[in-house]
């Protein structure tokens, strides 16, 4: 029968190197320590020690049992702390977002994890419909989506807005809608809706629909769409998060437009559930950083 105390006794024995010191540290008798070791050996059906008088050596099974025991108790402590929803620096975070968000948010979260080792982060890149399904199934505690979700079992609220950027090849010299039509459009999952919103606001008299533009290609990976633009194959519209993290940002340029449009990012969680405060700290920190970068300040209203 599995008994965590047997592992605790065995770990202490290995670390002290002495049955006597183990008994003293654990407030046990020396025969009690020996009994725990024998019980653990019986449970594992392997000898863990080779005794040499008052000294002992670990067998291969003993070394593996010791390593496993350390992981076992470390995971137990992590689990115990994760149950504290008010803890800011311990516990597991399970988040999913589109690639357009995760390209910058995930590295930011990893940086926070380095500073607070008690955090464990499981981050998934996915499309909005997959994120909704996973939050409903309990595979993620929090999802970030680019469209508001209406579902009786979900809470959805606006979290943050990122500017949309009209991105053209670096050598493109045009400024008109006609000239954009001439080079064509590079599409991705949210490309048509983002481009339509930005072009409609800035060319209200000329723009009718995205059907005006020749489609020069499609990729379902937003991080790669600027590769096509950098090669001169067309233009696209992406959030500033994508442009700022792109390895091709020097081979493309943003076309200045008078009217700004934004990609709205929404937080999705199970209805009635309380999202632990560690999520709030991560998301507010990222949002505040983005506001400082854009405006030089970071007034934050908690979205959670």
Give a written overview of the molecule.
The chain is built from eleven helices and eleven strands. The chain is of the alpha/beta class and 304 residues long. 45% of the residues lie in helices and 21% in strands. The C terminus is likely disordered. The protein has three domains: 79 residues, Arc Repressor Mutant, subunit A, CATH 1.10.10; 103 residues, 3-Layer(aba) Sandwich (D-Maltodextrin-Binding Protein, domain 2), CATH 3.40.190; 101 residues, D-Maltodextrin-Binding Protein, domain 2. Helix 5 links the parallel strand 3 and strand 4. The longest helix has 23 residues. Helix 1 crosses helix 2. The strands form three sheets. Strands 3, 4, 5, 6, 9, 10 and 11 form a seven-stranded mixed beta sheet that branches. A two-stranded antiparallel ribbon has the order 1-2. A two-stranded parallel sheet has the order 7-8.
| Beginning-to-end CA distance, first to last residue | 44 Å
Structural class: alpha/beta
Q: In oligomeric terms, what are we looking at?
A: single chain
CATH fold naming of the largest domain: D-Maltodextrin-Binding Protein, domain 2
C-alpha geometry: elongated
- Going by CATH, the architecture of the largest domain would be 3-Layer(aba) Sandwich
Radius of gyration: 28 Å
List the helices and strands and how they pair.
Layout: H1 4-16, H2 19-26, H3 30-44, E1 49-52, E2 55-58, H4 60-82, E3 91-97, H5 99-115, E4 119-125, H6 128-137, E5 142-145, E6 154-169, H7 177-183, E7 185-187, H8 191-202, E8 215-218, H9 225-230, E9 236-239, H10 240-245, E10 252-254, E11 262-270, H11 277-295
Parallel strand pairs: 3-4, 3-5, 7-8
Antiparallel strand pairs: 1-2, 5-11, 6-9, 6-10, 6-11
């Amino acid at each position: 029968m599995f008994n965590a105390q047997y592992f605790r006794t065995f770990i202490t024995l290995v670390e002290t190197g002495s049955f006597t010191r183990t008994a003293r540290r654990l407030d046990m008798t020396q025969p009690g320590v020996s009994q725990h070791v024998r019980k653990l050996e019986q449970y594992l059906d392997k000898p863990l020690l080779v005794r040499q008088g008052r000294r002992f050596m670990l067998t291969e099974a003993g070394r593996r049992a010791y390593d496993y025991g350390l992981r076992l108790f470390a995971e137990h402590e992590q689990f115990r702390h994760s149950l504290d929803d008010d803890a800011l620096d311990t516990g597991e975070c399970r988040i999913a977002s589109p690639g357009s968000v995760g390209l910058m948010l995930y590295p930011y979260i990893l940086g926070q994890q380095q500073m607070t080792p008690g955090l464990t982060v499981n981050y998934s890149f996915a499309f909005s419909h997959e994120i909704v399904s996973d939050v409903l199934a309990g595979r993620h505690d929090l999802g970030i989506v680019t469209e508001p979700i209406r579902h009786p079992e979900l809470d959805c609220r606006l979290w943050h807005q990122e500017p949309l950027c009209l991105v053209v090849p670096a050598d493109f010299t045009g400024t008109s809608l006609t000239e954009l039509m001439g080079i064509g459009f590079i599409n991705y999952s949210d490309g048509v809706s983002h481009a339509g919103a930005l072009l409609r606001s800035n060319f209200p008299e000329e723009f009718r629909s995205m059907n005006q533009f020749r489609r020069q290609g499609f990729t379902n990976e937003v991080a790669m769409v600027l590769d096509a633009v950098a090669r001169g194959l067309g233009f696209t519209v992406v959030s500033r998060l994508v442009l700022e993290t792109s390895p091709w940002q020097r081979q493309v340029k943003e076309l200045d437009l008078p009217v700004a449009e934004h990609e709205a990012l929404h937080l999705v969680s199970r209805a009635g559930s309380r999202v632990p405060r560690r999520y709030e700290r991560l998301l507010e920190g990222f949002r505040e950083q983005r506001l400082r970068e854009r405006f030089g300040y970071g007034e934050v209203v908690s979205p959670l």
